[in-house]
Amino acid sequence: MHLLLRNCHVISPAENINGRFDILIVNGVINRMGVVWQHVREVIQYDLAGKIIVPGFFDMHVHFREPGQEYKEDIHTGSLAAAHGGFTGVMTMPNTNPPVDDRDVIEANAIRAARNIVDVYQSACATAGRKGEKLADIESLINAGALAITDDGSPIADDEIMREVLRRTAPFGKPVVQHCEIMSITDGGIMNEGEVSKQLGVKGIKNASEYEIIARDIKLTKETVGSHYHIQHISTREAVEMVRKAKADKANVTAEACPHHFILNDEALLKYGTNAKMNPPLRTRQDVDAVIEGLRDGTIEVICTDHAPHAAHEKAMPLDKAPFGIVGLETAIGLTYTYLVDKGIITLEEMINKMSVNPRRLLGLNDISISEGSQANLTILDVNKQWKVNASEFHSKSKNTPFDGWELKCKPIGVVNNQQHLINI
């Protein structure tokens, strides 16, 4: 395939590229950058004047529900949602049925994900069955391709088990990715504890459910040479400050944040009901502001989605019965640009770092290079495009989002990867 992208504004912070080029791609490889003459034959051409090309975006926290809950999502539909949302790579979570706690599940999922425009990588379980009682065969899972080790929605609660998981992952340079929650503190809570939970008459969740386990994990990480601890979907002001201090102490601790945690607070449940129910829960305005500041000053390196599809009938249940989580792949770029870049909190280059460069580096993947001779792995953005979220048009099987109908700026209009392209202009 010959693909010619004309009049591109290319921004690649890691390579210090910020300029206009034509890009000729031949069989998936960038063949030429610069002015490409019109006589190139048998080529598919797109005029991308006014558009921006960046290294392909990567979401290191998604749930594709396969195997076991394909009625919510599967690898095919999740990948479609990712591609249309502007992502060329994702890392899936292991809370499937069966869970990803042996290499056979990894290998079966890899077969399902083959020949995809989106690179679908996997994380794997820290403990057998995600039960927190017995270690999974971590070395075998990493050798089979797992990029990270995590029990995801089931936090690793036991101190000695967590210490051993950190110890076993250290030689491989793989992060231990923790869903930070002390279940005894959560104790059946369904949203943030505060005025809104009182108003709704439901049990709340204290901030301590998140930050107390982070304090323990940071201590264990400091004690375990070579280990890397990564905090999922950080949501509390106390946790952000702990990460900031850990970095100052040179601890190998990293963190991610989701758009819903830097845009919405717990008052959103009054308007959006179960589509604003997630775990960790939406917190107070003070917590939101702390997450924003953590993104601004670099304490939080990664923006991801925690894409969590649920069927309509599940989210239609009462607030205390409905599952936690929202979809995010098809709204994340617009939300991040609108609420962080357009407001001057971070630059576009910093957004690219947090949504492309940093997640790949944390997971030990190669940087994306936009240069002659490199594999083409690109996201195409129309940063000036004003658009309205329409959940009915999502490519995900599930539509559970509080952002339906929101007006956003910056539309992902295409991706190029694995000798394939999907461009909508």
Tell me about this structure.
This protein has 425 residues and is of the alpha/beta class. Helices cover 30% and strands 22% of the residues. Strands 1, 2, 3, 4, 5, 15, 16 and 17 form an 8-stranded mixed sheet that branches. The chain has a 4-stranded parallel sheet with strand order 9-12-13-14. It has a 3-stranded parallel sheet with strand order 6-7-8.
- Quick one: CATH superfamily of the largest domain? Metal-dependent hydrolases
Poorly predicted regions: none
Identify the overall geometry: globular
Label the structural class: alpha/beta
The share of residues in extended strands comes to 15-25%
Radius of gyration: 21 Å
Largest sheet: 8 strands, mixed
Fraction in helix = 25-40%
What is the CATH C-level name of the largest domain? Alpha Beta
Look up the CATH topology of the largest domain.
Answer: TIM Barrel
Assign the CATH architecture of the largest domain. Alpha-Beta Barrel
- On the 0 to 100 scale, the average pLDDT is 97
Number of helices: 14
Number of domains: 2
CA(first)-CA(last) distance? 19 Å
Topology:
Elements: E1 2-12, E2 17-26, E3 29-34, E4 44-47, E5 52-55, E6 57-62, H1 75-84, E7 87-92, H2 103-112, E8 119-122, H3 138-143, H4 159-169, E9 176-178, H5 183-186, E10 191-192, H6 195-200, E11 204-205, H7 208-223, E12 229-231, H8 237-248, E13 253-257, H9 259-263, H10 268-272, H11 285-297, E14 302-303, H12 312-315, H13 332-341, H14 348-362, E15 378-388, E16 407-417, E17 420-423
Parallel strand pairs: 1-4, 1-5, 6-7, 7-8, 9-12, 10-11, 12-13, 13-14
Antiparallel strand pairs: 1-2, 2-3, 5-15, 15-16, 16-17
Helix pairs in contact: 4-7, 7-8, 8-11
